[in-house]
Design brief:
alpha/beta; 281 residues; globular; 14 strands; five-stranded mixed beta sheet; binds zinc ion; seven-stranded mixed beta sheet
């Protein structure tokens, strides 16, 4: 899974085959990228090393942000050492812990503890605030000519007209909140996660089991589609994408159906699916 915004990419977990997806979806091997790893189970991490090696083959130079449990760094260092892997770029590692972890060019990244069989984290990727709505009539009234000066003001930068400084706040509304995407990783639902994901525009949540298999979900520390929907409802998110389905279900349509009875705006994530996250109204 990846979030793509104006050249910046956030990859969420690295299952096997992630590098093929990075290539086929044209996410770029050399650009601004942050990788968020929720926990050290194979289906979430085994693709990371191959991705790093492919980036090196492509002569990546830019630092790569990697966020994950502390042991992830150890795994990377030991494996790189044993396999004589030298990278062409620095890895900037941030150890996951609850709270704000990182600010990138476009996003702020926060983590919370998930409730899984090993140490695991959930992440919220929040777009930084956008400048407010631009009012052309106010700019005209202040004598700012249309063109370059307007676009400067729209980007939140001041301009000088006839020796007088015009501040963006004079011609725009208050800054607007950015979009917010939540990713649970593997977890049981919890009150903490309801708060953590509150108001997300898109929530991607563990839906390993159907509602009828709740005992298995409890035992293996995963969630059911109904539990994911209940959490989405309590957290008042705008859209829910179910993911991480158990291979026991040949089709996931019944999981989506039962979730929709609780939270109507639910879809099933699938390979190659692309979702455009709109701004809140
Ligand atoms: Zn797991
Ligand atoms: Zn998993």
């Amino acid at each position: 899974m990846a979030i793509k915004r104006e050249g910046e990419v956030i990859v969420m977990d690295c299952g096997e085959g992630v590098q093929r997806r990075v290539l086929s979806e044209s996410l770029g091997l050399g650009g601004d990228m942050t990788i968020l790893i929720t926990h050290l189970h194979g289906d979430h991490v085994t693709g990371l090393l191959g991705l790093l090696q492919t980036m090196s083959l492509a002569q990546r130079r830019k630092p790569l942000n990697v966020v994950g449990p502390t042991k992830l760094l150890r795994w990377l260092e030991v494996t790189a050492d044993l396999l004589h892997i030298g990278l062409t770029f620095p890895v900037r590692f941030s150890a996951a812990r609850p709270g704000v972890l990182l600010r990138t060019g476009s996003f702020r990244i926060r983590a919370a503890r998930a409730s899984h069989s090993i140490e695991a984290f959930s992440y919220v990727v929040e777009e930084l605030r956008r400048p407010g709505v631009f009012y052309p009539e106010k700019a005209i009234a202040l004598g700012v000519p249309e063109g370059k000066q307007w676009s400067r003001l729209q980007k939140g930068k001041p301009v000088t007209i006839g020796g007088r400084k015009v501040d963006p706040a004079e011609v725009t509304g208050p800054p607007r909140p950015g979009r917010k995407i939540g990713y649970s990783g593997d977890t049981r639902p919890s009150a903490g996660l309801v708060r953590f994901f509150s108001g997300c525009d898109l929530l991607i949540f563990d839906s390993t089991f159907s509602g009828g298999d709740r005992d298995k979900a409890v035992e293996r520390k995963h969630s059911t589609s109904i539990e994911a929907a209940e959490l989405a409802k309590k957290a008042a998110v705008r859209q829910l994408a179910l993911t991480h389905f158990s291979a026991r279900y040949t089709t996931v349509s019944s999981l989506v159906r039962e979730a929709r009875r609780v939270f109507p705006n639910t879809i099933a994530a699938s390979d190659g699916l692309s979702i455009e996250v709109s701004y809140p109204a």
